[in-house]
Amino acid sequence: MATSDELRHLAHARDLAMRGRGRVSPNPLVGAVVVRDGVVVGEGWHEGPGTPHAEVGALRAAGDGARGATVICTLEPCSHHGRTPPCCDALIGAGVSRVVVGCLDPLERDRAGGASVLRAAGIDVAVAPEDEAAVCRELNAPFFTHAVTGRPLVTLKLATSLDGKVATVSGETRWISGPQSRELVHRWRADADAVAVGIGTARADDPVLTARGVDGAFRQPLRVVFDGHARLPHRGALIAGAREVPVLIFAGEAADPERVAALRDAGAEVVQLPGSHAERIGHALDDLGRRDVQSVFLEGGPTLAEAFLAAGAVDRVAWFVAPILIGGAGAPGALGGTGLGPLAGVPRLAEMTVARVGDDVLIAGRLTALAAA
Ligand code: AOF
Ligand code: ZN
Fold it and tell me: How far does Cα 4 stand from its chain's mean position?
């Protein structure tokens, strides 16, 4: 059993883990503290692939203070040689007497198992209670989703007027949500491994899809366009910067070979996928998962958003509602397509949260009973 003091240190270790935000993928965000006689003698967090793990950083900071101490870490210590040596060896070598683990690592199931290795070495190991473990897993929701399913976690972001529109009748889209919401969206882009849009939005808005105005170091997300017929304009903002921030286009097999070749010449990667629109979404997520893309931030438009929902491919929704009324039967709503089925079967948000962001309202939640399930 972890003590209440240890759980307090675990919360601090989660804060430390967040210092790696936006740059650790495909590794998890991890924080660790070394505590001796109730006093923190070392702190560590993971900075990114190839750099020391959080536990090793904390042990180094503690030096001799680690002998006989308790180490509290947000994720089960690793037992394997990856890009860096096993943390278990480091913990055993440092002579720690107790390790409190925030949550188990799904990847350790195929390894020796960090908790068992430590126990076998005579170290007392406690795993945090389920409610705390859930908070630790949430810190790395994309890492967990990818580890378990091989696919990225997909978050659908939408911004609509109060009457559910994403554009006026004349096609104006800028801006529906307010500046604070847009700032938050840039933070989320920086956190994501990939940002995706459909060809309709790419053509209508000519978006850049990079993260801008975000504090601290982060990596730009891969920019993904679902473009069945390879119609992305060569002179658009996405292609203009494709040699600096990569652009990946998912097209259908029937896309015009000349257009595909021209997009490749312009610096984009084009992957042609077989099957229907819905099947291609599944193939694209498999492809992204194989590239270690653990999170996709899906920014619309209405056709792609509905297709993802219809394919059961959305894990989370973040919906900004701005206090404006657009009106007009011809003004597009947030979701296009042919609809998500009878009311009894439509997707519904679970674990919903509602927050005020500037003048907007942000409704977020998880999708459980998916339409295609
Ligand atoms: C991290 N940082 O602080 C911890 C991790 O290739 P490697 O050696 O960096 O190993 C990566 C794996 O190690 C990762 O997938 C996770 O299972 C485990 N723990 N990883 O990057 C850390 N503690
Ligand atoms: Zn490790």
Answer: 30
